Amino acid sequence: MAAGPVDYADVIVVGLGPGGEDAAGRLADAGLDVVGVDERLVGGECPYYGCIPSKIMVRDADLLAEGRRIPGHAGTAMVHPDWHPVARTVREATMDWDDKIAVDRLTGRGVRFLRGTGRLTARDEVTVADGDGNETAIRARRAIVLAVGSEPAVPPVPGLARTPYWTNRDAITAEEPPRSLLVLGGGAIGLELGQAFSRFGTAVTVVEGGPRLLPREEPEAHELLLRVLTEDGLNVHTGAEVGSVEYGDSCGFTMRCARGERFTAQRLLVATGRRTPLAGLGVVAVGVDPDARAIPVDERMRVIAPGGGRPGVWALGDATGKGAFTHVSMYQAELVVRGVLGEGGAPAAYHAVPRVTFTDPEVGAVGLTEAEARQRGLAVRSGFTDLAASSRGYVHQTGNAGFVKVVADMLSGVLVGATAAGPYGGEILGALAVAVHARVPLAVLREQIWAYPTFHRAIGDALKDALAGSPAP
To answer: Which residues form the FAD/NAD(P)-binding domain (predicted)?
Structure first.
C-alpha cells in the first residue's frame, strides 16, 4: 500500500488520450465520480504530436506539390517553400502544446483531474505521483480504466541512445526544416513526415531494415510508394539493417548499415513503431505480465471482469494491441463505457479496422491483406485494377496514379480486405470499409453502379477482376 493520503472514486481513468478522455467524460456525464490521471497533455498524442499537426504538415507539403504540377497543365508557376506558416499553424492548432482548454473541458464535465504518473498498486488502487514526487493513492469503487497509450519505440542500435535523435514529437515541433534528414523506419510516420520535409527542401533518406515499405500493407503499396517517393526526390533503401549510429556537432549523424552503406544527415528521425511500457504501469497488480507487448482484454475490453464486490479493470487504446489508431481507441471507449455502466451491447469486432497512410499518394486499407487471408486458410481470390485504367484523365490531372485491390473469401462470398492507394485513397477506402464491416455479399457488390470518372469506380473494376471466371457467389 502506497504511503500518503488516500482518496476514493467510482472510476479511475489512467491516461487521457482521445479514448481515455472520452470514457472519463462520458462516465462523469452518467453521474459517476471519476478521477482522470495523466502525466502529459490531456488529449494525448493525436492532437499535439500525431494525427492533427502531422496532417497540417502533410497537407501544406501537398500544396507545394500541386503548385509544381501547374506547368504543362494550367499555365506557369514558381513555388517557393516557406516553413514558417506551417510551424505557426501547428503551434496554433496545438495551442502551443498547452492543454488548458482540454483540461477545462474535462473538468467542466465533472471529472477530477490529477496531473501525474499513475500506477496500479493494488487491484482496486492507483497511486499517482506528481512532478514533485508527492504520492496520492486512489481506490476505485467501481472501475479502473487503463488508457495509457504508447510512446515511440527506439531500437537498440549501437550508439543511437547517445545521440540527439528525433522522434515524431521533435519533428512536429521543428521551427525550421533540416537541411538533410535520415528517417529510420519505412512505416507510416516515417514516410509521411519524410515526404513532407522533402517537399520543403530537405534532402531525405529513408532507411528500412525490412524488405518493404509499409510492411503491414500489400506489396503493391510498397512498389507504388517506392517509385513515387524516389521520383519525389527521396532516397529510399530497404533491406538495410542499421549497424551503428554516431553524432558529432560539426558533421551531424552518421549511420552505418550491416551491408556497407553509410548515410549522413543533419537530423535523424527514428520512426520504428511504438510501444507501451507496461512495467511502470504496475500491471502485475492485476495479474498481467509486465513484459507483455499488450494488456490482454476480452471482447468487452475487460482485463478483469467486475465481481465479488471488487471493481472491474478495463483497458483501451494502444495498450491493448488492437491497433495504434485514434479511431480504435474511440471505438473501444464506447465498449468500456457501456461495460462500466452495465449497458451491454455488441462485443468488440476488429475484422474491418481501417488504416490510412497519408503520403501522396495515400494508402488506405481495411481488414486482411491477401497474405494474411491465405495464412488463415481462407479460399482467397484477389482483384486488382490500376487507377490510370479506370480514371485516365483525372489521374493525369491529379499527379500520382494508384490502385485498388480487393481480397475476397470465395467460400463466404464476402470481402475480407481491401486497399485503395492513390489520390484521396483514404476517402475511397470508406466504401470498401463499409463492405468489409457489413460483410456485404459479392453478389450485391458486383451489381453496384459506380460513378464515372471518379476514383472509387476502380472498386468495381477490382471486383470484376476478382470475380472473373467464377460463378456468382
So the answer is: 10-333
